[in-house]
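Homework-ish question, so no full write-ups if that breaks the rules, but can someone show me the predicted structure for this set?
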Amino acid sequence: MRGNVGPFISRKKLHTALIFALCVVIPVGAQDWIRTGTGLGVEKIRLAVPDFNPSAQDPKNTELLKAFNETLWNDLENAGIFDMVSKSFYPLGPVGTPADVKFEGWSAPPPNAAMLAFGNLGASGNGMTVQGWLYDVKNVTSPQVLGKQYQDAATNDAARLTAHKFADEIIFRLGGGIQGIAETKVYFVSSRSGHKEIWAMDYDGANQHQITHLASISLSPRVSPDGSRIAFSSLNKGAWEILMYSLELNRLVTFPRFGGTNLSPSWSPDGTKLALSSSRSGDPELYIADSSGTNLKRITSFKGPDVSPVFNRKTGTQIAWVSGRTGLPEIYTAEADGTNVQQITNQGYAVSPTWSPNGQFLVFSWMRHYGPGAPGAQDIYIMDIASKQWVQLTHDGGRNDFPCWSPDGRHIIFQSSRSGSEQIWTMLADGTGQKQLTSAGKNTQPNWSWK
Amino acid sequence: MKQRKLKWVTLVFALGAIMMLGACKKKPAPPPPPPPPPPAAPTASLTANPNTIDKGQSTTLTWETTNATDTSIDTVGAVQPSGSQSISPAQSTTYTLTAKGPGGTQTATARVTVNAPPPPPPQANATEEELFSQNVKDVYFDYDKSDIRPDQQTSLQADLQFFSQHPSVNFSVEGHCDERGSTEYNLALGDSRANAVRNALVQGGVTADHVKTISYGKEKPFCSESNEACWQQNRRGHFVYGK
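A: Not a homework solution, just the prediction itself:
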């Protein structure tokens, strides 16, 4: 028995030494890290959000309040700009109206909150009224930053939507005037019906529902900037064609067939043009068409696959895409007319680029060390286009692919196989706060709405 | 020690005595009066030889009964207690032999399976399709490549020979990829593979209008394991007849 103690201690020492070595290594590697998005670098605001109170006696209140309080808390926590004060630090007693606020109890430690969001919710009949306030609790004389009243149907969906709206107001006021994302949608591909169909959900994974019922294979959904249409690629009458779905009419609308294999449509930021890949000439090349499908113009002519074009969502004058012209797929950029081609990655296997809302960064999926004997990890990276400096955002194994930025620039949604099957995950744009949003079937190719 | 041994012996002896006393108390029960012998129960057996025939052929039913006063086979009628008979059913039939006697009723069954007539000779089309699947070989690719490997020339030449003998056959070439890499890139790569096969065939004399191409990327894999053997199975140009 004694003999084992020696090696055990030395192994433990080795672990300690390794952990210490890692601690030393990480800061060195982290020098490359770029902070992206607005407000991510500044100190986070300490925000207290006590549960909203019932304002009337109604049996529906309990369930509505549960949906509202959960959604509001998650939205504010997900926003990435708040230091949420733990509920165990809160002073006792309900806070439903301004009269209930005892400033000392909130602004002094332990809560030490800078801001307090509170309010009440009451159902009566089929309606629901929500009152919400945002208080600067250190400014006792004039604390109110925001006071809002909402009326909607007394349903869980409406309670969630109202919470999203109130959260977005708070995020807008405290987050440097950038619109929150609590009311945004995500379109994606799900196999849970037995076929790969286009689905939609709220940004937080709630309200997942099927959009198309084509019983074929549908891929690469991209929602238009105004949120009215989804362009996607589908195996239709024996060929891959671009299809157009109207979210206003809830049906497919006419779009021309181009012939060959047509893939990966994406919108220009003004919604007037689509970039796509088509092999109508015999080789997969990039084309740009009007959003109606007319005026198709070819912009690349290099042997090898050219696919996944995306417009710079700030300028609309530049595209990034994936090309296999030199062998393994790498990411390239060019002007939208095909001139000024620049190779962005030049090692490994790089696919699925999308732009940050400010047009300065690309996020993409990269097997950086592809080759025999190399670990085949496929991770999400962002790159500053001007300096070509990159940062690795995922380090958790599995295949991570199809990243897409949120409209506020603070979040990235992507697909990952790390949980055992392909599912949709979100994270803050610095790689923290990774969360799984889907679990039924296989869910891939998330596309975040533009607003 | 000795005392303990003595105690044991006493105990065993006492136990033995109790058991014997107990046994002595039991008195043997008187045997029941013998019941009157029941009438012997009938027996029945039925076989068909052979039990599988083609339509139009006949088979022989053979049966045997004992202790029966009334013997019948349904669909045939009353029969001798034992015997055999040739029958020629039009379809598969189960024959039931019923033997009734004072001792009761006994049944036995035999099934004759009648095979449907052989299908009509295959049409010319099906033969071509069979020849297609026997002779046309898929073309395999290297990882991330869409050019035809030298070792795939044998398959390609066999394909060209078939298509020169069957110049009117319509077919499609499906481009497939392994599971690695992105969905979109693999669909484009599969398209390049299908077109590479098609171009090689057209150069070898196949009429372009007879060859369709489609890419499945990694959407319809032949093999779903994550190893090189399986990935190689999935990196191919696959031929499909008549599309």
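Now go work out the reasoning yourself. Hint: The interface with chain B takes residues 196, 217, 219-220, 233, 235, 238-240, 260-261, 263-264, 277, 279, 282-284, 304-308, 322, 324, 327-329, 349, 351-352, 365, 376, 401-402, 444-445 of chain A (CB under 8 Å).
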